Amino acid sequence: MRLPRLRRPRLPRTRAGRRGLVQAVMALCVLALLPSTWMYVVTGDRLRTTADVPRTEVAVVFGAGLWDGEPSPYLAHRLDAAAKLYRENRIEVVLVTGDNSREDYDEPDAMRAYLTRHGVPDTRIVSDYAGFDTWDSCVRARKIFGVDKAVLISQGFHIRRAVALCQAAGVTSYGIGVEAKHDVTWYYGGTREILAAGKAALDAVFRPDPRFLGPKEPGVTNALASAR
Fold first, then answer.
1. What b/e string do you get for 139-172 counting C-beta neighbours within 10 Å, with b at 16 or more?
2. Which terminal CB of the chain, N or C, has fewer other CB atoms within 10 Å?
């Protein structure tokens, strides 16, 4: 069977046509970069390190995958930063938010166990089992757990999006981008962020409800009370 020949696209023949094509391509490039530009503007003065972040009652650690039931190296680095802040009395409570959409995958409990092994009391850890993505985690931190100010902890390639979305959700946020080895996962994460910026901008504008909202939970309030 003879396959039909594909016709090569033809470029405009006139100067005006070529100019219009270039302008259209440039316009598309500008539109594609607008969400990333928005994130950089919103988070310009909100990024810190573990050494200079303002003292804040609550830290939020976002899930980043499990390996055989244990936090992945990327997630472990996030949790190490939270444990360091707690030991230095820079935070009082850690809200761990991640995916527990099925019985055999439980990010928040794995994060909790890791933190307790590294010196954070169990009573100072609160679990959000429905942090299915960054927007959901931010909205639930505000609406379900009553967090209005927090230190957010993630990798550098993700932290700007986390801060921008939590700010949009009503959580005054500072972000700590922990170091990460520049491996395949790092490059994948950085590339993914370019695409995720568009969704983040839409979330910030339209503010959809999370996949699961549910009733308010007093976990953070109780944990802060126990700290006093």
1. bbbbbbbebeebbbbbbbbbbbbbbbbbbbbbbe
2. N
